[in-house]
Amino acid sequence: MSVQIYLLARPALDLEEVALFLRHQKTNWRRSPESSEPEEIVEFAGRICYLSFGDRQSPRENDEYIRNLVTMEHESVLEHVSWTFLLTGVSRAFTHQLVRHRVGFAFSQLSQQYRDQAEAEFVQPPELARFPAALEAWQRGVAAATEAYRTISKVLHQIEKDPGQEIQKSELRRSIRSAARSVLPNATETKIVVTANARALRHFLRVRGSIPGDLEMRQVAAALLQSLHREAPALFFDFHIEKLADGTPIVVQHVVQDGLKVASA
Ligand SMILES: Cc1cc2nc3c(=O)[nH]c(=O)nc-3n(C[C@H](O)[C@H](O)[C@H](O)COP(=O)(O)OP(=O)(O)OC[C@H]3O[C@@H](n4cnc5c(N)ncnc54)[C@H](O)[C@@H]3O)c2cc1C
């Protein structure tokens, strides 16, 4: 089971509304022909701050304009564009770390209380592949957890037959699954919908994408960045996917300082 990323939703710019605004202001906006809608939304929002349209517009193209916003740390403008991803084949250990990101993120995750986990799958840490003894121990561990889950679930279902049972059936199921899931490991596969704006995604990539000892996190960060590079390269211009010696991906930010590129974690 490996990570799969689906891009469910992306920002859209309503050009008719933009044209209406420009008409009302008796001005115009020279757009960069190669830019994507999210990139244009960010540029437009930035231009609103200075009303830099018409003859107040500099010759900068969209990518330079956005690079300048980022360099100046005028990054709230990046919050106007969000993407919605569905991640599957990720572990609960990974999502526990992911949902710690509070600002500019929204999450909807598969519930272990509403969904029975007797057939749950598990995300195998890639590091195990080269070490059969470790892999075998891991496989035994998840098999035992599955077995324990099924037994706990089966035994507790007897509560349903208790005379005088007052709790609603759906709540009973929730309580049985809550007890049973307590034995499931961090490796349990989960699915999560993640919506995040460009600023929050940049922060996430910066702090999470380059941790050598966290391969699953690096893999997800690299897959997200690949998608974001297709969607809005100008907004993620300074992030790059490189490879460690073992061929696994790492996200590196190249901060531009006084014209020099400096790799940063
Ligand atoms: C290498 C590493 C090791 C970690 N180890 C642990 C660990 O051992 N235990 C653990 O519990 N967590 C750990 N974390 C999680 C970490 O502490 C953060 O909770 C997580 O990375 C989310 O980052 P964030 O708070 O910057 O993001 P967000 O919650 O998205 O916040 C984004 C930014 O908004 C600002 N902000 C958000 N909330 C506040 C606030 N209340 N007050 C002031 N500013 C705010 C900050 O500038 C913050 O960087 C680790 C993270 C990393 C990257």
Q: Describe it for me?
A:
The protein has 265 residues and is α+β, with helices and mostly antiparallel strands. 40% of the residues lie in helices and 18% in strands. The strands form 2 sheets. It has a 4-stranded antiparallel β-sheet with strand order 1-2-4-3. Strands 5-6-7 form a 3-stranded antiparallel β-sheet. The chain is elongated, with a radius of gyration of 24 Å. The model has no long low-confidence stretch (mean pLDDT 94). The chain binds flavin-adenine dinucleotide. Flavin-adenine dinucleotide (FAD) is lined by residues 100-103, 200, 203, 207-208, 211. Flavin-adenine dinucleotide binds at residues 100-103, 200, 203, 207-208, 211.
Number of strands: 7
Enumerate how many helices there are, as a single number.
Answer: 8
- Backbone structural class: alpha+beta
Largest sheet composition:
4 strands, antiparallel
Radius of gyration: 24 Å
Task: Name a few traits of the molecule.
265 residues; alpha+beta; four-stranded antiparallel sheet; binds flavin-adenine dinucleotide
